[in-house]
Design brief:
The strands form three sheets. Strands 3, 5, 6, 7, 8, 15 and 16 form a seven-stranded mixed beta sheet that branches. A six-stranded parallel beta sheet has the order 11-10-9-12-13-14, sandwiched between helices. It has a three-stranded antiparallel beta sheet with strand order 2-1-4, with no helix packed on it. It starts with a strand and ends with a strand. It is an alpha/beta fold. The chain contains ten helices and 16 strands. GO terms for molecular function: oxidoreductase activity. InterPro entries: ADH-like_C, ADH-like_N, ER, GroES-like_sf, NAD(P)-bd_dom_sf, Zinc-ADH_QOR/CCCR.
Length: 324
């Protein structure tokens, strides 16, 4: 089968053996895949958790049809239209745990391309905003890096859960102008030293109850200053750097709960629970298309290298999708 593989000379489309499902796995005939920032790093040889390196089939999320069941797979059947996440997504066939996937809503008029935009964003940001961020109706929230696919989903989930004020950040003026379409009341430029003052002004000088941070690095101390006393910061991504200065005194003075999250160190049982929580809590909004992501551009699988060039140019809003 065709797959996008990182090899000795970089990432390229290659022929690899078709996998077979074991235990609770299912084999999916992939029809569309969503690109993510972690994928971009792995195309350059970086490691993402246990994934990466020479011989790795790349990719993290997909949509397609179940082609074969492992002997212990439950709740799914051959031919089911599904979307999910896991390793080796950029291929004609991919393996998935039977509970690390969602059925594509039958009545939602949802294409495989639309479905492929959702698994990572839904699970990452429900876990960050609701499970770890503990956002309550009437509270205020800032999404750092809000113009990414997962960032746009975070804005929408915050609005769905009753946030009083939703703030999003982007360093691009055009994308900042679009954030209100996805639930933001205010858009700030995290590269502008005055953004903290803008957040404080919007929250009567108190700061936000919750920051979902995809930037980290240089904004760490600004985040502390923009968070309310006894507020929360959930660290999801580190697009601005994995290291930076941290004002421990300000952190203590404001009694901020600082929480780090990642899928890289989670067990399959923990990931199953996250998928279950999405189904229980917000799946109705997915079925009604209240929660959805824009597709910036669709590429054919043979042009997947161009899709990553488009991502690296960093001018897109929403998701980049490849189809097979």
């Amino acid at each position: 089968m065709k797959a996008y593989v990182y090899g000795a000379n970089g990432a390229a489309v290659a022929d690899v053996a078709r996998p077979s499902p074991k235990g609770t796995q299912v084999l999916v005939r992939v029809r569309a895949c969503g690109l993510n920032r972690a994928d971009l790093g792995m195309t350059k040889g970086h490691v993402h958790g246990a994934a990466g390196g020479v011989g790795t089939v790349l990719g993290m999320e997909w949509a397609g049809e179940i082609a074969e069941l492992g002997p212990d797979a439950k709740g799914v059947g051959v031919g089911d239209r599904v979307m999910g996440s896991g390793a080796a997504a950029f291929a004609e066939y991919a393996l998935a745990d039977h509970r690390r996937l969602f059925h594509i809503p039958a009545k939602a008029n949802m294409s495989f391309e639309d479905a492929a935009t959702l698994p990572v964003a839904l699970t990452t940001m429900h876990n960050a905003v609701v499970a770890n961020g503990a956002l309550q109706p009437g509270q205020t929230v800032l999404i750092q890096g809000a113009s990414s696919g997962v960032g746009l989903m975070a804005l929408q989930i915050a609005r769905l859960k009753g946030a009083k004020t939703v703030i999003g950040s982007s360093t691009d003026a055009t994308r900042r102008g679009r954030l209100k379409d996805f639930g933001a009341d205010l858009a700030v430029d995290s590269s502008d030293p005055g953004w903290v003052d803008q957040v404080l002004k919007a929250t009567n000088g108190e700061g936000v109850d919750l920051i979902v941070d995809q930037i980290s690095g240089k904004v760490a101390n600004q985040n502390l200053a923009a968070t309310k006393i006894k507020g929360r910061i959930v660290n999801v991504g580190r697009l601005g750097g994995t290291h930076g200065d941290f004002n421990f005194d300000l952190h203590a003075a404001r009694r901020i709960h600082y929480i780090g999250v990642t899928f890289r160190t989670r067990s399959i049982e923990e990931i199953r629970e996250i998928f279950d929580e999405v189904r229980k809590d917000i799946w109705g909004a997915v079925e009604s298309r209240k929660l959805q992501l824009p597709i910036d551009k669709v590429f054919a699988f043979d042009d997947i290298g161009k899709a990553f060039e488009h991502m690296e140019a960093n001018r897109h809003l929403g998701k980049i999708v490849v189809t097979l």
